[in-house]
Each structure stands twice: as C-alpha cells, then as structure tokens.
C-alpha cells in the first residue's frame, strides 16, 4: 500500500464520519493547509499521524487504511 492509497482511505473515512479536515488538522496540531497536503498526497503521512487519526476516528489503523468494498 502506497501513500496515495493510505490517504485516499483516510479521506473516505473522514468524509463518511462527517469530520471536517480542519478538525483533524487541529487534533494533529497542524494548520489546515498542512493536513490538506497530507490528504492530497503532497506530503507523506507519518506513522504517528496515522495512529492519532485512527484513534480520533475511533478505529484501528487496519480499519482506517481500508475503504470498505461495496457489496451488491
């Protein structure tokens, strides 16, 4: 799994949980523009950031990095 896949999954979960990007940025101690760069794949996400986001979303890192597949 590359950085782009990671941040795509994080963004999917953030939007699904109806959490604003600025709130995630504040929780991480980042300005919104820095978090935007992470979510857009312009900056690599760190392991520490991944763990903090998973905790903030109430999930494990394994759950966070996967976008649920659509079932018919």
UniProtKB/TrEMBL annotation:
GO terms for molecular function: DNA binding. Pfam families: HTH_3. CDD domains: HTH_XRE. It comes from the Bacteria. InterPro entries: Cro/C1-type_HTH, Lambda_DNA-bd_dom_sf. Residues 14-64 form the HTH cro/C1-type domain. Gene3D superfamilies: lambda repressor-like DNA-binding domains. This is Helix-turn-helix transcriptional regulator. It comes from Macrococcus equipercicus.
